[in-house]
Amino acid sequence: MLVFVLAVPFWLMGALVPAGVPLPMRLPVSALQILCPIAAAVMLTFRAEGRGGVRRLLRRAVDFRGVRPAGWYAPVLLLVPSI
Is this model's pTM higher than 0.85 or not? Predict the structure, then answer.
């Protein structure tokens, strides 16, 4: 529900301001919704665990040592450019 509530302003901005914010590759403003799940996770973690919890959450999000086996890096890094 929180992700939905955070996404609504991007939908409205995209609908009301067709020219919108100049984004690369002519993306719509609603493409900025990619930040909504991250923002929701940070808000809920902060509420439950405080700053230390948010630090641990963000540290886990970029922990490259947690990916086993290392062969998964190839699809992760090459999937979006190949699409």
Answer: no
Using the CB atoms, write b or e for 4-37: b if 16+ within 10 Å: eebbeebeeebeeeeebeeeeeeebbbebbeebe
Is residue 20 within 8 Å of 12, Cβ to Cβ?
A: no
Instruction: Give the start-to-end residue ranges of the domains of the chain.
Output: 2-82
CA distances from 32 to 3, 8, 25 (A): 12, 11, 13
Of the pLDDT bands very low, low, confident and very high (cuts 50, 70, 90), residue 36 is: very high
